[in-house]
Specification:
By secondary structure, the chain is of the alpha/beta class. The protein is about 40% helix and about 15% strand. It has 2 domains: about 5-270, 3-Layer(aba) Sandwich (Rossmann fold), CATH 3.40.50; about 280-350, no CATH class. The strands form 3 sheets. It has an 8-stranded mixed beta sheet with strand order 1-2-3-4-5-6-7-8, sandwiched between helices. The two termini are about 20 Å apart.
């Protein structure tokens, strides 16, 4: 098995002049967006004020890098290997933004990298552990755009305006969704500079988004990478080129980029998938899309309000009994659409690791082989 860490150890000596920037590199840089760069990387949108990973480690910032996020210890290893590699060591980091606003239900972070040849890679962070961030995620079911999407479009507009070369846009999880939205809504001048948009297992959009001229202008540049068992990449709808990547994890653990497999410097195409799990995710997504947005808003907002009253501030504190208590409140008050409550319950249970609540599909189940094609997905 080869993952991002192995990729850096085995191929980090190749510069981007020797091997051009590709999807695997975008995944590495997207993962670096999860690091807390506050006080380390400038917030100014100015590459001249940027700092390299080498310089960061020389300043002794390892403890801060390892602290926080879902991937703390792994992120420190990733940063150290990037700093030691010829491929990433001299990239300049700049334009770091990290915003969290409970009044807007906003959680947003972004970072820019200056690549060789005056190219730029803009990366957007996925959801952190804050309840605030997860509420914004869930609100995509009824709200468009969400605050982070608008922030992302503004950020990309600024980054592309000062870039002197092609621009890559990338993100993992919610960050992938932000990358696609930002590319569509950053303005025509910025769109002309975009070379590729990488969406790593990010949620989709409501169908009407794909009919907008703004999205159609960048549709051919978008590449989406999903894993067989993660529901995140199935949420809402998508169109365009999508690739299924092999993962060593199971269930939601497949969403972890450190578990994604690589082969010959490229993301490895999934060889099989569990049809039952895939069908469960697809069935849940259809139910989500069928709920009136007004009902979804009431149920989701109430759920998170009640969770906060129970003293929960981070999703890692959310226990099955908390979810059950909130759902009981819905039942007792009889003020909510029953289907909306059931769907939200299934969604929350899925994300915190409780088995799906619902009927199994009557179709054939078990492991299904992927079509025999190339073993690596497009870069």
């Amino acid at each position: 098995m080869c993952n991002m860490i192995d990729y850096l150890m085995e191929h980090g000596d190749k510069t981007m002049q020797e091997r051009p920037f590709a999807a695997t590199d975008a995944l590495v840089l997207s993962q670096l967006s999860y690091v807390n760069w506050s006080g380390i990387v400038t917030g100014r949108m100015d590459p001249e004020r940027g700092i390299t990973l080498n310089e960061i480690l020389r300043r002794g910032k390892q403890r801060q890098i390892a602290r926080g996020s879902f991937y703390g210890a792994h992120n420190l290893s990733l940063v150290c290997l990037c700093a030691a590699s010829r491929r990433f060591s001299d990239l300049k980091l700049y334009g770091y933004r990290d915003c969290c606003d409970g009044r807007e239900n906003l959680q947003f972070a972004a970072l820019s990298f200056l690549l060789p040849g005056k190219k730029t890679c803009v990366v957007f962070r996925g959801t952190d552990e804050s309840l605030n961030g997860w509420q914004e995620n869930f609100s995509m079911v009824y709200r468009f755009p969400v605050p982070a999407q608008e922030y992302a479009a503004s950020y990309l507009h600024q980054a592309a305006r000062i870039s002197r070369g092609p621009v890559y846009v990338s993100g993992h999880s919610k960050g992938g969704n932000l990358a696609v939205y930002a590319a569509a809504y950053c303005g025509s001048h910025a769109q002309c500079k975009i070379s590729r948009v990488y969406n790593f297992d990010g949620p989709g959009f409501w169908p009407e988004f794909f009919q907008t001229p703004r999205y159609k202008n960048i549709a051919d540049k978008v590449r989406k990478y999903v894993v067989p068992e993660s529901f995140v990449g199935l949420l809402l709808e998508d169109e365009g080129k999508s690739f299924m990547v092999e993962s060593t994890g199971h269930g939601m653990a497949q969403h972890d980029p450190f578990k994604w497999e690589l082969k010959e410097c490229k993301l490895k195409k999934a060889s099989h998938y569990d049809l039952e799990k895939r069908q469960r995710g697809e069935a849940l997504n259809k139910r989500i899309l069928s709920i009136p947005k007004e009902d979804a808003k009431v149920v989701i907002d109430t759920f998170f309000d009640v969770a906060r009253k129970r003293g929960i501030g981070r999703v890692t504190q959310l226990r099955p009994e908390d979810t059950i208590a909130v759902l009981k409140t819905f039942h007792d008050e009889k003020l909510y659409n029953r289907e909306s409550v059931l769907v939200l319950g299934n969604l929350v249970f899925y994300f915190i690791g409780v088995p799906y609540v619902g009927k199994k599909s009557g179709k054939e189940q078990g492991n299904h082989q992927m079509p025999q094609q190339e073993s690596c997905v497009e870069s």
